[in-house]
Amino acid sequence: MPNRNAYVTDLKSLQGECSVNYLRLVRLMGELESGETREVELVSHGRRVGELCLKLQERAPYTSIVRVSQRGILDDYLETPRMRVHLYHDVRMAEVTDFQRQRHFHGRYRYPNAQMHQPDEKLQLNRFLGEWLEHGLAHGHSLDLPELP
């Protein structure tokens, strides 16, 4: 087996992604109260393709927990994507802490591993959240607000 260089966690990229995701989530959620849900209809080429659902599960002075999920036209065939995101208001960062019932992701993993996580699994999950939220901002229409800011 060839000798590979070990993956080194890119903290700058991870923190940057978490900071931008915080801003995206705050923009999409608006002024939700604990237990409330914001639904954003996703449209592609003039057709409804699903809904991005943001449920504020808990709100505290310095942190909040949001469940992000999606409903769509493929729900009968694919497992609905969902994740739990912790928002840290004091540092304005949002971090994925749970994805499809898997919790507590490490900054790096040896590869291969029993869970088949990528070496940079945590960074990839936060980037996926960012792409998901950006798609909602670019192509979504709030079902309970007149228009996203």
Question: Which properties best describe this structure?
Answer:
alpha+beta, 149 residues
Could you describe the 3D structure shown?
With 149 residues, the protein is an alpha+beta fold. The protein has one domain. Helix content is 26%, strand content 34%. The chain is built from 2 helices and 7 strands. Strands 6-5-4-3-2-1-7 form a 7-stranded antiparallel sheet. A hairpin with a 3-residue loop joins strand 2 and strand 3. The chain is globular, with a radius of gyration of 17 Å. The protein starts with 10 loop residues before the first helix and ends in a 7-residue tail after the last strand. The mean pLDDT is 83.
What is this structure, in a nutshell?
InterPro entries: DUF1249 (IPR009659). With 149 residues, the chain is of the alpha+beta class.
Show the helix and strand layout.
Blueprint: H1 11-29, E1 37-44, E2 47-59, E3 63-72, E4 82-88, E5 93-99, E6 102-103, H2 121-139, E7 140-142
Antiparallel strand pairs: 1-2, 1-7, 2-3, 3-4, 4-5, 5-6
Helix pairs in contact: 1-2
Mean pLDDT rating: 83
Total beta strands: 7
Strand content: 25-35%
- In terms of structural class, how would the helical and strand content be classed? alpha+beta
Order of helices and strands: HEEEEEEHE
Cα Rg: 17 Å
Distance, first to last CA? 53 Å
Q: Tell the overall outline.
A: globular
- Largest sheet composition: 7 strands, antiparallel
Helix proportion of residues, in percent?
Answer: 25-40%
